[in-house]
Amino acid sequence: MSKMFKLSSKIQCEVLIVGAGGAGLRCAAHILEKRPGTKIMAVTKVSHPQKSHTSTAQGGLAAVDPNDLVDKPIYHMFDTWKGSDCMADQDVVRKIIDAAWEEIVWLENRGMHFTRDEEGRLSKRTFGGHTVRFGEASAFRAVFEADRTGKGIMDNVWGEALKGGVTFLDQTILTELLIQNDRCVGAVLFKEKTGEFVAVSAKATVLATGGCGQVFRVTTNCRQNTGDAHAVLLQAGLPLMDMEAVQFHPTGIVGPGILASETLRSVGGILRNKDLEPFMVRYAPKMKELAPRDLVARAIETEIREGRGILNPDHNIEHVWIDLRHLSDYVHAVQIPEVSGFFRQFMNLDPRTQLCPVRPSNHYQMGGIPTNAFGEVQRSPDTVIFGLYSAGECGCASFHGFNRLGTNSILELITMGRFVGERVVLSMREAADGLPADAGDRTFSQFSKYLENKNEENIDQIREDMRRMMTEHVGVFRTEEGLNTAIRTLSGFGERVRSTGLRCRSLQMNQELVQRWELDNLLSVSMVTAQGALRRRESRGGHARIDFPQRRDEFNSHTLAYMTEFGKIRFASRPVDMSIFEAKGENHEKFGLIERKY
Amino acid sequence: MKQSYSLVFNIQRYDPDTRKSWMQTYRIEAGRILRFTDVLRKINKELDPTLAWNSSCEHAQCGSCSVVINGKPMLACELLVENAVNYFGTTTFTIEPISVAPVLRDLVVDLEKAYDRVHRIRPFIIRPSQNPNHGQEYRISPRVMESYLEATRCINCFCCATACISSHKGFVGPNAVMASVVRIMDPREDATEDRLKQLYSEEGVYRCHTSKACSHVCPKEIDVAHFIGLAKEGEFH
User: Fold this and answer.
1) Dist. CA A465–CA A214, nearest whole Å
2) Which of B77, B147, B62, B157 shows the shortest CA–CA distance to B109?
């Protein structure tokens, strides 16, 4: 191993936060409010915390206003439980929903520019799946900042973290977690800008790295969402939970994958195939375009698979059309201006006169790093890793179960971020443990191989093949045969990546090197997702098996998957917390194993 | 309609290991609605994996992919090939890194250094004003908010700072000024005097020559110069 591979320094801090998006920095802000002067280091893979993917969330943030005369937290809990297809943990659901409004006030008091009503109060809007009185009527529950709620959150938590004195490390990746005797003592980081490896010793380490949507060909996720923390965790012998629970949005804009929101269909947009046939009538004769998300997504996917899709030559992706041409200018200008704008901006077409290309787009990973309701990372259902926490999309407590409701994701990241902060403050040790002598060895062996290989497999090509294959076999719908093909193909990719070579052999700002590392992470996440999907012989929430179309009670537990060697997975399970149901309080029967029917 | 274009990309390169800079020409065929980020990815895959460039969300919400294209600072993710050909009237494009931060490699700059300017103006509420509605949200009229909301859409892509003719070391820069003006106009901020003092200091708004290049290049179409103008006049409401 060459001299390039050494720890350039050892850094000490009290709290190491990996991922400086909404969850990570909310956590930092809380710690600094309760324990000013805490030495926090926040690491981000992007070029600055403000660039984090939290910024792109549009819709809103669900929270029940205590002054609301109609809405109640119990209704929100019910909607979340029902939406999750009975896989959310009820202790987590209660905790997050009870804390939701406090978080809204926190954000507002610190400067978030929420949209207001005429009286200067926070405006609220409705969102799919959010109801009052257990499904009776739509709830006005989502506060928002125009169509850029995530940006409002991001700007705020970044500002507060900056104000509190967080040290930031931009364009830096986590390559290794340092865990000894179920205690996390820190991590090894790689600073892309300078090409240096550093070991950080910390009393608490928080993983808040976001999703892993780059596994799929069309995704709303950003370029950096490659499941890095997920993979690093697997290497450390820790499990991932429910990775087969992936949410696809039925109508992503072909190419960039941006969401073409539900609104397009609710205002009267018609889905058409290559023969211009309005095909939804064959799948949902009554509801047609207004059928639930998963049904619409499967209908579109079926049209494409049966050869009635259209190929976009530039992006080389098949799609169907959404027809908005018959809608009035008023609808275009007032009801769907943003989405209309996206088609103009990224497709160069006019939705008033032209058909718009859409297809299902990967949107959200419900599964992730298993934690308890305090965000403490678990090795098994009854052991936590002391000093290791996770929050945000990469974490899985689980608030969303197998299907996430709109506006619940940024609620989860902001509340879980705070809960982790609370826990860190409470359990912070006096002194950090020393770093293990072999800190960095695993990283060096991994990275030196990347640079040593001289063969000619193309990293971009393997990634593209993988994303295409995952979309086809582990996407909107799955079958035993398809999943077996996926697992076999992934093993093949695992072989192929060994023969990739890098043209740029520097450590400094080497994009190719980082992409090579990301590819390993993507493959690991893909493998766990595919095998989890194969094992779960039922359909539930975002996991749809054509060969097992019903939900089955025998699968009413979370999947835990351990994989220290690529492809070799050991499974375990974690029971779903049903404490609201078991408490036998008022309305507890709403929290049993209910049907997810709308 | 032309389906595909033969493009010439002249890209400014820099290798931090040898400290050499050079201009490299890539010839590539690209579909009409590919974004410039898609074309850069295509260059990586088909021609040169070593070319480094920056992006993240790739739909104009994060401001990571700013580059200078034929002299104009722009987001590479929202420029479609067909539009670029029409806008510039050519299929040859010179692409350079933005000028407000040191180059790390090729088109990637050290954005952290660019952000130093924004950090200096303190992009948060420095001292919260009294909230009569204690424990709840501040009541703010939508009318009051309308006067500054436009400026909160800024994504700190630094296109304005790159285009600004006064953006030498002395000036904190258009986006930073705007971030401070937002908080001056925000009724929740009490530290307006501190902020004004900074805006009227050596690094403040009087460095601005009112070329309005900032408004002209802003990818979010924010009238940045308007907010700098408010600061110059001291007239915020």
Assistant:
1) 12
2) B157
Eight-state DSSP code of residue A404: P
Q: Is the pLDDT of residue A1 over 60?
A: no
In chain B, how many H helices and how many E strands?
9, 7
Instruction: Centre a 10 Å sphere on the Cβ of residue A568 and count the other Cβ atoms it contains.
Output: 10
Compute the distance between CA of residue A316 and CA of residue A303 in angstroms, rounded to an integer: 17
* Rounded distance between C-alpha atoms, residue A532 and residue A545, angstroms: 12
The answer to whether A271 and A279 are in contact (CB under 8 A) is: yes
Least confident of A63-67, A215-219, A295-299, A522-526: A295-299
Kindly indicate the confidence band of residue A339, based on its pLDDT and cuts at 50, 70 and 90: confident
- Tokens 């804009």 appear where? A253
What's the Cα-to-Cα distance from B178 to each of A149, B165, B171, B174, rounded to whole Å? 20, 17, 13, 6
Q: Report how far residue A555's alpha carbon sits from residue A539's, in angstroms, rounded to the nearest whole number.
A: 10
ipTM reported for the complex surpasses 0.95: yes
- The pLDDT confidence band at residue B168, using thresholds 50, 70 and 90, is low
Q: What would the mean pLDDT of A159-169 be, rounded to a whole number? A: 98
Reading phi first (left if > 0) and then psi (alpha if -120 to 50, else beta), residue B106 is in left
Asked whether the beta carbons of residue B56 and residue A510 sit closer than 8 angstroms, the reply is no
- Name the residue among A116, A461, A511 with its Cβ closest to that of B140: A116
Q: Is the previous residue joined to A398 through a cis bond, with omega within 30 degrees of 0?
A: yes
Amino acid at A17: I
For residues A555 and A494, give the distance between their C-alpha atoms in angstroms, rounded to a whole number.
30
Phi, psi dihedral angles at A204 (to 5 degrees):
-140, 140
CB pairs under 8 A between A and B: 189
| Cα–Cα distance, A106 to A227 (Å, whole number) | 30
Q: Which residue has the higher pLDDT, A38 or A128?
A: A38
CA A290 to chain B, closest CA, distance in angstroms equals: 27
Between CA A28 and CA A40 the distance in angstroms is 7
**Under a CB-based contact definition with an 8 Å cutoff, are residues A400 and A257 in contact?**
no
A 29-48 → B contacts, CB under 8 A: 46-48
For range A418-439, the mean pLDDT: 91
Average pLDDT over residues A262-291: 91
Q: Which of A83-97, A442-456, A498-512 has the lowest mean pLDDT?
A: A442-456
> Would you state the pLDDT for residue B237?
60
Number of alpha carbons in the 13 Å side-chain half-sphere of residue A584: 0
Contacts of B41 in chain A (CB under 8 A): 460
Confidence of residue B234 (pLDDT cuts 50, 70, 90): confident
Using the Cβ of A567 and the Cβ atoms of chain B, whether some distance falls under 8 Å is answered with no
* Residues 40-69 of chain B whose Cβ lies under 8 A from any Cβ of chain A: 41, 44-45, 48-50, 52-64
Q: Are A386 and B72 in contact (CB under 8 A)?
A: no
Under an 8 A CB cutoff, do B3 and A502 touch? Answer: no
Q: Token match 């001292």: residue?
A: B127
Report the C-alpha gap between A225 and A246 in whole angstroms: 14
**d(Cα A321, Cα A298) in Å, to the nearest integer?**
15
Distances (CA, A) of A254 to A363, A527, B32, B57: 14, 26, 14, 15
B113 touches chain A (CB under 8 A): no
Does residue A293 have an active-site annotation? yes
Q: Give the three-class secondary structure for A164.
A: helix
pLDDT category at A559 given cuts 50, 70, 90 is: very high
Pairing of strands B72-75, B92-97: unpaired
Q: What distance in Å separates the CA atoms of residue A389 and residue B226, rounded to the nearest whole number? A: 45
Helices (H), A334-440: 337-347, 409-427
Which residue shows structure tokens 């202790």?
A91
Q: Which residue has the tokens 């933005």?
A: B98
